[in-house]
Amino acid sequence: MHEKKQILLAFVVILLTSLACSLPFGNNAPSPEEISATAESAISATLTALAPPVLPPLEDPAQEPDTQPIPEEEPTSIIKSSPDQLSIAIIDSVNNLSSWQEESGLNLLINTGDVTKAVLSPDGEWIVYTRTSMDGVDISMWAIRFDGSDQKLLVSHADFMAMSVNPEVIDVYEIVTISPNMLDFIPGTHTIAFSTYPRFNAPGLLLNNDLWFINLDTDEKRSFLSPGQAGNFYFSPDGTQMALVTPDRIDLLNTDGSNRRIGILSYSFVYTYSEYAYHATPVWSPDSSYLRVSIPPQDPLGDPTAPVNIYHLPTDGSLATLLASLVVAPLENAFLAPDLNHYAFKEQLGEPAENLFSLKFSDLSGGTPIEFTTGSLGFGAWSPDSSHFYFINWNPREIFIGQVGAPGVIAVDVSPAMNLSWITSDRFVFIYQTGTNYQLRMGTLSTPTVKIADLGSGLGNPTYDFVSP
Fold this sequence. Notes:
CATH superfamily of the domain at 335-461: TolB, C-terminal domain
CATH class of the domain at 335-461: Mainly Beta
Strand order of the largest sheet: 3-2-1-32
Structural class: mainly beta
C-alpha cells in the first residue's frame, strides 16, 4: 500500500510539472477554457510517455526469404512451338545482323556494326539482339521481326544503368556498365527473359542473379526476380517451369511465379581457378517431368580421384538423388545426352603435360564404359536423338562425328571448323574460317557441306542462333 502511494504521489508531481510547463508565459492570464485544454493535453502526453512501447513482432530467423514473384495477372499468350522452316539469325564478322531461311536465303537486317548477341523466338518470328558501343559501355537491347519489320528498342543503356544490382556490390560508383548476361525466350511464347551483371574497372565477375521478362506482343517489361533471388535460368521444354542455378544449389520455379522449390540439389562451391564461379547446367527431360545434372568435384585439381556426380532432379519438390559417380580428367565433366541416359566423359592418359585423353561412353544403367578414341581432343555435343556426337581434335584443329557403339568417324570436310550445332539428328551447321574470311556452312551425315552464308572478313567472331521445325 505504501508503494502504491509513492507511485501515485510521483504521478501527481509529474502531472503538475507538465501542466505548469505547458501554461503560456506573458502578461496575459489564460482563460479557464485554455487552462482546461492545456491540462487535458498534458495528461494525455504524460500517459502516452508512461505507456510501454509497441514493438514489432520478432522475425523468424529460420524463415526463408520471400523469393516468390507476383504471378502474372494474365497468362502469356501461346504461339507456335516451332517455325515452318529452318530459320537462322546470324551476327557476322563485322557485327551486323542478318536472317537466313532455306527459301529466301540471306537477308541483312541491321548494318550498324555493333550487334553483339542475338536470339530467335521459338516460332522464328522475332529476333532479340543487343548492341554495344566500341568502348563496351553503351549497351542496349532491341527486337526486330525476322523479315526486318517492327524494329523496337526494348531496354536502353539508361534503363540498364537504372537497374538494381547484386546486394554484394560494395560500391556502385565503381560500376562501368550493366550488361545482359543470359538471354532466352520462354518456350512457346514471345516473352524474352534475361539476367544482368555489372562490369567494373577491375578483374572479377559478379552476377546480379536477377530475372526480367519482356513480352514482345504487349511490350510489357517487368522485374520477375530481384537481384540476388534468381541465378542462371533454364526453362522446361513446355515453358511452365524453370531451373534457377547458383554456385551452390538448384531451385525450381514455375514461370508464372508460383511454387518455388528451394534447394532440390545443393552442391559444394566448385573451384574454377579463374574469376568466374562454376554454375551447374541441368538438362530437362523432353516431357518436362524431371532434370538430370552432372556436378564436378569441389577441387578438380586437388584430388584426382574425386568423382563427378550425376543426379536425378524430380519436379515435385523432393530432393535430388545420386545416380552415378565417375572419375574424369581434371577440370572436365560428364556430358549428358538428350535422352538423359547416355553420357560421355574424358579420362587423362599419361602426364598432364602430354594433353592426351581417352574419350569414353557409358549409360546410367550401370554398364561398363567403352572407349571410343584417344588423342588430344575435346567433346563437342550430342545429336538430338543421342545416337551421334561430334568431338574436336585440337592439333591440328578438326571436327569429327562419331556414333555410339559404332566404329569409325566422319570428318567434317573443311577445317578449321567451329561452333557446330545439330539441327536434326542428321543435319548440322557450323562456322568455317578460310584465311580472314568466315562462312556459315551446312552438312549432313551422308553429304558434303555447302556454304549457306558469307560472314565477311572482319575482326569479330561470328555467331548464330536457329530454330527448326
